[in-house]
């Protein structure tokens, strides 16, 4: 499937290449550069570019183009989704995903890429599994490794790989057991000139940070699960249980992960006093000397409301089964502006 | 991170410089970089030394630096001999890095690469599965043709490895070997065939991938694994899911008949496209004989549905395309919501998803109409996303929403992004042509845009207005005049050309302006763009023909200018026009028709979507995205007219049966059907497809019993209106028949039985309703429900086999040994039974009749196959730590011969004793009986106990609800049997079987 991967920075240098089948000359990227030139802006570079013998599928993130070289028919989303997963993994490993960081950690990057694909087909893409195969660099480990000559590479098959819960490794141990959940809702909206709403929708996610010893089995229930009708889950969530009882039941991955995301087109805002309509005011001034724009510009708004999920979604309780200790539990709500645009 | 992490960085001061130097040598000038180049050689020298040292840390450093070189695309091949020596290093990281190096350079250094092979061969036998797997990975990645036989052997062995992880790697190796040596295809197909049978979810995705690359045309290899793949699908890793779903989509299109109603497509494209799918469906259904979906077809559609909730966009898209290509059109609607959700992800994902929605929205706008606003453009969207959204909005436009849309478009026209503004103007043009109500509004709006400050906007408006005017000539003189004025200001060639063409076409409507325009153009001719020059020539010719008095000289002047133009197209055109319009000796007859030629009515251009003809590519593919057939694209075949034999998908048991009856599969299937459809032999032979629905209908008709008829009518009407019924078609058909049979028998009995019969009848209608709802339930419930269903079906077939071959039942023992039998079950109990394959209660019903028949003794046989699958009765979470599972042992029930035996396993997952477990209140439908298990005094922590109980389901799939109680709590639970579990396995000879059949027939007529 995926033949090769080239990492290209914004000035057009190929700073990393990796091949999973026979080597494809980097001159194939010339077609990419051409397209880049035509597009003028990075985000307008088409994600799929045909060349005489190959197809170039790319994603653009953190000012880096991740260009995959394909030779035969493949669902394009398959490759795109995989490339994004690569970026996420790098971010997870190194904290940030940038050209200098990738260059500094080129060996780990190479080892990770080697595990992620075999012959161009994804092999291990779960961060938890990868981290067992190749340990992420930490300052302490680096020091230890230099002294003892030990390595970053594990020699056992990650336990998760074979179990029914591939996303969780076994033998997890914490002294403080804690599980935090963030309910974050973003409002996407378009407001027209007169102030009326053209479209508005909520994009919500529940991000979790779970540090629990052993194999905990969690259930999370909501006060008002009916609000959620368009959802997508992390693979750990038991779909059937959700379907029948509207309860999230899952064995969580270790660490940070996105448990659930949802989408709402309409929601209940409660009562608003027509005498005292809530209003937000702001002024916009042009830079001194700048010419007046041809047309009135669109304004993008940013705001944050702490401790509130605008949809009214509320977590009822979190229970843990399968382990005997008492974990520390926490839940946080937040509402933010997503793509919130005001046309003027 | 810190420079410590990779010691080679410490010396990177010099290293970096030399590397830069090397680049310089290869690209710019060899002269200046020479010194650096030699130091590079020296550096490699020191790498060699490090690799040969006996300290692992030095070797590791060297390898890390080498990998760094490879990553940058630098040539490190000369280090091959030094590196390959370390292939057997004890240090696992060194080893891994050596593997990376080997895979990269082995192709170039084949002879040296061979030195490493023996290490891998040894590693293939390592007790550690990770080492075995990675040895296979590297061995198969070394592209050295000479080791093909070794690879083949390794793959064969690995494919039988105990570790599924190793087998997964074997599946990957298949593709590698195939690309190295396509000659191995046949042998590799054998391995694929073997791995396809693998039950591990880890292997499934990889082997299907190998199948798709090596032998995508060998669809026959899938048959036997089809149901398994469908059932495993939810548990396969996400990448495997995508591959499997795409493959199964292709499979479904070759094996099942179309679930689409005829005429759907026509109407979709035709004028009625505003009508919803449901309306159409009902309409066509009334006319057509009901279509029954193959249960396997349904299985696939049902089992992929939960994956629409995947977090992986590729999986969601794969399911969406599966629904689009193989589900009934009325069901495809559910994918819209999920696709719209994907629009929240990254720009690349949006791009692909929007493209697919664009194609879908042309054919079935109803699907996305509710989400119209999700396609509204934001100023921050990249242009390519904006234009795709615009495309979709145009496809979705109709009379109802066009005014809202036009208002929205107005904002877009003002966008800073001019390319997008231009695209919007095109869109307005398309809406104007598609929706006649708004043509004038759009045209006026576009005319207003002609005074826009931005030239691109004006130019685009001109082009679009030109197209619109062409559709309704005669009435727009004012607009044309307005546009003629624009010629003074506008510079964009396409727009100028458009205006000139428009004036030329309408030169008789604007008689005063046209010659003046020509005059101006004659002046500027030499400085115009080629496109404009051609139109000036056209305008001149048209005016010459209509108004030669005023324009003769002007035209000749222009023709002279054209004659000496630099562009040969213009010179050619000039020569052509001159010959045509200026009569002379040479031009002959043609010039007579010059006016007709130039001023002919021209057809208006069709403004249509660029996505219009994309639907011949499978959605979600690369080919669809590019709108060209990509290398290796596998065509989606059209639905077959007649479904190929569905029995090919039956598993195992059929193969055992084959040994006993040498007849072909098709014949077996046929006789199997005969058994169920008793009387109508004609119909059987004519009806080759498995349309049990119509059979049952006609049977009840034959009986002429009004009540019965009502029942079946109800069934079939239900069938046409609701989706889930078609899936249960076969089963419910079977069910109907059984009850029909029973009723007819009951008739033969004394009058006193009649009341009971009535009772039963009403139950039957209940049960058929019940059943359909249960299947709806199970659509979400992929594993537990579907499996027994398919099993029971195959079991049914076996049973028939057994019946037929009573006399040589010896092979049965072989069968039996495979099963785990319960102690109380005799291998075969001879019972005198008048009818085969009837459930216990039915047997009892008929016992009175038995006297009249000759002594046909039918043995209740052991089931040929007992699933080990258990169903959850009570989950430990809802049972406060008490868990209960049940399964159907398929044994005659010891509590009563009408009962179906059920085994319940109770588990205590708490850390306390659970006391007094018993059955509490029972809520059973009328007629149902239940034999409960004896209360259990206590169950120790972690303890488990298995108890038996019996339920008389009255031959229906009604749910038995009851309470499972402990000392402190009561839990409501229920059991609903799959149809197959209600049948009793019996064995009888073919002769007896026929006799029974005859008897049935007789009774039917007697009852009549």
UniProtKB/TrEMBL annotation, chain B:
Membrane topology reported for the UniProt record: Peripheral membrane protein
Ranges of biased composition (kind: Low complexity): 765-777
A GO biological-process term: intracellular protein transport
Extent of Basic and acidic residues compositional bias: 666-677, 727-738, 748-764, 792-811
GO CC annotation terms, alphabetical: AP-3 adaptor complex; endomembrane system
Biased composition (Acidic residues): 678-696, 705-726, 778-791
Domain of life: Eukaryota
InterPro entries registered for this protein in UniProt: AP3_beta, AP3B1_Ser, AP3B_C, AP_beta, ARM-like, ARM-type_fold, Clathrin/coatomer_adapt-like_N
Keywords in alphabetical order: Membrane, Protein transport, Transport
Gene3D superfamilies xrefs: Leucine-rich Repeat Variant
SUPFAM superfamilies per the UniProt record, alphabetical: ARM repeat (SSF48371)
Protein localization: Endomembrane system
Record domain AP-3 complex subunit beta C-terminal: where: 811-958
Keyword Cytoplasm: no
Compositional bias annotation for Polar residues: 1-11
Sequence segments annotated as region (Disordered): 1-31, 268-292, 662-811
PANTHER family reported for this sequence: ADAPTOR COMPLEX SUBUNIT BETA FAMILY MEMBER
Family, per entry: Belongs to the adaptor complexes large subunit family.
Name of the protein this chain belongs to: AP-3 complex subunit beta
Source organism (scientific name): Homo sapiens (Human)
């Amino acid at each position: 499937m995926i033949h090769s991967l080239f990492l290209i920075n914004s000035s057009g240098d190929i700073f990393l290449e990796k091949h999973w089948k026979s080597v494809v000359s980097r001159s194939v990227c010339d077609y990419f550069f051409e397209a880049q030139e035509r597009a003028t802006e990075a985000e307008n570079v088409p994600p799929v570019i045909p060349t005489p013998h190959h197809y170039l599928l790319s994603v653009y993130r953190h000012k880096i183009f991740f260009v995959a070289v394909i030779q035969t028919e493949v669902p394009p989303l398959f490759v795109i989704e995989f490339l994004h997963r690569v970026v996420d993994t790098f971010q997870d490993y190194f904290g940030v995903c940038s050209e200098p960081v990738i260059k500094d950690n080129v060996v780990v990057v190479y080892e990770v890429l080697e595990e992620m694909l075999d012959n161009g087909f994804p092999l291990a893409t779960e961060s938890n599994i990868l981290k067992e195969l190749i340990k992420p660099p930490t300052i302490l480990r680096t020091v230890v490794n230099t002294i003892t000559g030990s390595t970053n590479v594990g020699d056992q098959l990650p336990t998760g790989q074979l179990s029914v819960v591939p996303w969780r490794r076994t033998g997890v141990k914490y002294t403080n057991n804690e599980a935090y959940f963030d309910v974050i809702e973003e409002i996407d909206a378009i407001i027209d000139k007169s102030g009326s709403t053209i479209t508005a929708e909520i994009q919500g996610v529940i991000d979790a940070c779970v540090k629990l010893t052993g194999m905990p089995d969690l259930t999370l229930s909501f006060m008002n699960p009916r609000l959620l009708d368009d959802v997508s889950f992390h693979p750990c969530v038991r779909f059937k249980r959700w379907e029948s009882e509207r309860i999230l039941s899952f064995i969580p991955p270790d660490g940070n992960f996105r448990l659930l995301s949802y989408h709402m087109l309409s929601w209940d805002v409660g009562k608003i006093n027509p005498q005292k309509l809530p209003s937000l005011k702001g002024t916009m001034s042009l830079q001194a000397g700048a010419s007046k724009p041809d047309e009135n510009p669109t304004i993008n708004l940013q705001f944050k409301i702490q401790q509130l999920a605008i949809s009214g979604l509320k977590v009822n309780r979190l229970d843990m089964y399968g382990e005997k200790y008492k974990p520390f539990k926490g839940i946080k709500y937040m509402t933010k502006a997503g793509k919130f645009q005001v046309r003027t | 991170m810190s420079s410590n992490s990779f010691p080679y960085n410490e010396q990177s001061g010099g290293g970096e410089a030399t590397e830069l130097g090397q680049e310089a040598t290869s690209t710019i000038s060899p002269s200046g970089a020479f010194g650096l180049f030699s130091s590079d050689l020296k550096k490699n020298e020191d790498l060699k030394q490090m690799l040969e040292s006996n300290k692992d840390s030095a070797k590791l450093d060297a390898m890390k630096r080498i990998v760094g070189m490879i990553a940058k695309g630098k040539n490190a091949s000369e280090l091959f001999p030094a590196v390959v020596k370390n292939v057997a290093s004890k240090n696992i990281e060194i080893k891994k890095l050596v593997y990376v190096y080997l895979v990269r350079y082995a192709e170039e250094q084949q002879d040296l690469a061979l030195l490493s092979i023996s290490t891998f061969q040894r590693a293939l036998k390592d007790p550690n599965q990770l080492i075995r797997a990675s040895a296979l990975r590297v061995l198969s990645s070394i592209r050295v043709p000479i080791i093909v036989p070794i690879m083949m052997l390794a793959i064969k062995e690995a494919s039988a490895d105990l570790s599924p992880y190793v087998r997964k790697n074997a599946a990957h190796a298949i593709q590698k070997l195939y690309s190295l040596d396509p000659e191995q295809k046949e042998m590799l197909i054998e391995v694929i065939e073997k791995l396809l049978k693998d039950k591990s979810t880890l292997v499934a995705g990889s082997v299907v991938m190998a199948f798709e690359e090596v032998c995508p045309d060998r669809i026959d290899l899938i048959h036997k694994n089809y149901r398994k793949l469908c059932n495993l699908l939810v548990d396969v890793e996400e990448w495997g899911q995508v591959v499997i779903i795409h493959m199964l989509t292709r499979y479904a299109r070759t094996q099942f008949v179309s679930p689409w109603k005829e005429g759907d497509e026509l109407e979709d494209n035709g004028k009625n496209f505003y009508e919803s799918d449901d309306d159409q469906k009902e309409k066509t259904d009334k006319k057509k004989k009901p279509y029954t979906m193959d249960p396997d077809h349904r299985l696939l559609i049902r089992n992929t549905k939960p994956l629409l909730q995947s977090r992986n966009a590729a999986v969601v898209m794969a399911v969406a395309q599966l629904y689009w290509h193989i589900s009934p059109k009325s069901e495809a609607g559910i994918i819209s919501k999920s696709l719209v959700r994907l629009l929240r992800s990254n720009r690349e994902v949006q791009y692909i998803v929007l493209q697919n929605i664009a194609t879908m929205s042309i054919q079935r706008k109803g699907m996305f109409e509710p989400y119209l606003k999700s396609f509204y453009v934001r100023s921050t969207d990249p242009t390519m996303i904006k234009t795709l959204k615009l495309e979709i909005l145009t496809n979705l436009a109709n009379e109802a929403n066009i005014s809202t849309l036009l208002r929205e478009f107005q904002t877009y026209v003002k966008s800073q992004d001019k390319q997008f503004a231009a695209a919007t103007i095109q869109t307005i043009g398309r809406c104007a042509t598609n929706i006649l109500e708004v043509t004038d509004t759009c045209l006026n709006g576009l005319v207003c845009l002609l005074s826009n400050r931005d030239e691109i906007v004006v130019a685009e408006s001109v082009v679009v207005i030109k197209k619109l005017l062409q559709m309704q000539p005669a009435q727009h003189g004012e607009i044309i005049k307005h546009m003629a004025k624009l010629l003074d200001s506008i510079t964009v060639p396409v727009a100028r050309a458009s205006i000139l063409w428009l004036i030329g076409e309408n030169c008789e409507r604007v008689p005063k302006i046209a010659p003046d325009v020509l005059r101006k153009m004659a002046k500027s001719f030499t400085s115009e763009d080629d496109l404009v020059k051609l139109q000036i020539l056209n305008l001149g010719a048209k005016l010459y023909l209509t108004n030669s008095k005023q324009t003769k000289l002007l035209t000749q002047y222009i023709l002279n200018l054209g004659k000496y133009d630099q562009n040969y197209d213009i010179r050619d055109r000039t020569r052509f026009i001159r010959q045509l319009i200026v009569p002379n000796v040479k031009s002959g007859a043609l010039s007579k028709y010059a006016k007709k030629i130039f001023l002919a009515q021209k057809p208006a251009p069709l403004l249509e979507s660029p996505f219009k003809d994309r639907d011949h590519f499978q959605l979600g593919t690369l080919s669809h995205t590019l709108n060209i057939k990509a290398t290796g694209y596998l065509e989606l075949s059209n639905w077959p007219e007649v479904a190929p034999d569905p029995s090919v998908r039956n598993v195992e048991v059929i193969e055992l049966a084959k040994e006993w009856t040498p007849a072909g599969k098709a014949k077996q299937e046929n006789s199997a059907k005969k058994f169920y459809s008793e009387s109508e032999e004609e119909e059987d032979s004519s009806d080759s497809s498995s349309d049990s629905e119509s059979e049952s209908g006609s049977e009840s008709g034959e009986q002429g019993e009004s009540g019965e008829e009502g029942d079946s009518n109800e069934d079939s009407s239900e069938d046409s209106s609701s989706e889930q019924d078609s899936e249960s078609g076969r089963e419910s058909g079977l069910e109907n028949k059984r009850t029909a049979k029973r009723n007819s028998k009951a008739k033969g009995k004394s009058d006193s039985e009649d009341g009971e019969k009535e009772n039963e009848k009403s139950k039957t209608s209940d049960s058929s309703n019940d059943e359909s709802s249960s299947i709806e339930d199970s659509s979400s419930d992929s594993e537990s429900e579907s499996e027994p269903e398919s099993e029971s079906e195959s079991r049914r077939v076996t049973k028939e086999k057994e019946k037929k071959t009573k006399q040589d039942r010896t092979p049965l023992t072989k069968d039996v040994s495979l099963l785990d039998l319960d102690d109380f079950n005799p291998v075969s109990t001879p019972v005198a039974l008048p009818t085969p394959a009837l459930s216990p209660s039915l047997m009892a019903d008929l016992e009175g009749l038995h006297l009249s028949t000759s002594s046909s003794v039918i043995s209740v046989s052991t089931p040929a196959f007992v699933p080990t699958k258990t169903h959850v009765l009570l989950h430990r979470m809802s049972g406060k730590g008490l868990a209960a599972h049940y399964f159907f042992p398929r044994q005659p029930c010891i509590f009563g011969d009408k009962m179906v035996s059920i085994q319940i396993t109770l588990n205590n997952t708490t850390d306390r004793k659970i006391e007094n477990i018993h059955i509490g209140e029972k809520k059973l439908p009328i007629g149902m009986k239940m034999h409960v298990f004896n209360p259990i005094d206590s169950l120790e922590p972690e303890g488990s106990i298995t108890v038996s109980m019996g339920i008389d389901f009255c031959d229906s799939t009604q749910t038995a609800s009851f309470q499972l109680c402990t000392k402190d709590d009561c839990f409501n639970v229920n059991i609903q049997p799959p149809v197959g579990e209600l049948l009793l396995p019996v064995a009888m000879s073919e002769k007896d079987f026929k006799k029974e059949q005859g008897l049935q027939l007789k009774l039917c007529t007697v009852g009549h």
